[in-house]
Please model this.
Amino acid sequence: MKLAAFQFQAKRYVGVVSADLTTVSPYQLSEDQADLGALAIIEMMADGKDLPPLGQALQLSEVCLLAPIPKPRRNIFCVGKNYLDHVKEIKDSKLGDAQGAMANLPKHPVIFSKVPESVIGTKAGIDSHPQVTQEMDYEAELAVVIAKKGKGIKKEDALRHVWGYTIINDVSARDLQAKHVQFHLGKSLDTFCPMGPWLVSADELDSSHASIQCWVNGELRQSGTTEQLIFDIPTIIEALSAGITLYPGDVIATGTPSGVGMGFKPPRFLKKGDTVKIEIAGIGVLENPII
Ligand code: MG
Model:
């Protein structure tokens, strides 16, 4: 099942995308529920409630897709340094110098977060924030969406807590990461969390063998697979949930493969007018212009 949040004739909806990706059938929901996007449906499923009926299918080409969870209830959890080649490219960069020992290969998952207000949908513009950063970068990532509440979740049970997956661009201001040392500020600027194009339920994607590619202005920059993850999804969920309760609709971005702009010599940062396109086979395409 693919769940999309979208706008049609100035109203917001959440619906099921058809298998051939041509139509979307909206759930009959109140305005407040529809504003939550897929979160409304995930929470109903977690509570064991019946899902509302579906209305008439609309052509996907006629709706404006929003982020599938446009208003997450909590910060987006993120894993940093989770692909070996990406750890190396950052360690060898100016940012690696600023991070010191933190730039080494991690022994445990490196967790940080992005504020929920940074989320935007596919096709929406990523603000270049010229007053704040001159080193804006992209990070293509597979993101996990949690299905049910849990704490102390063991690795072997972790995938039972997963509702499904989506794509996140973990947009990053490298100069702010270096200047403020911690990740949060440089990762949380407004519009710095493109998410989409929709959610794909766990039964439709083998997340341990997902290929991730990223293009900037049509040039392939990143190409990896989740087989290369240093900490796999069950390990990430076990580490996060050891002391933090996870809730339905929580989103966890699992890290980015090598090929980010910071890793080039000289670095190739994003600028106004660029377009970043990310594809994960089995999910779809997330594409955003820099404005
Ligand atoms: Mg990242």
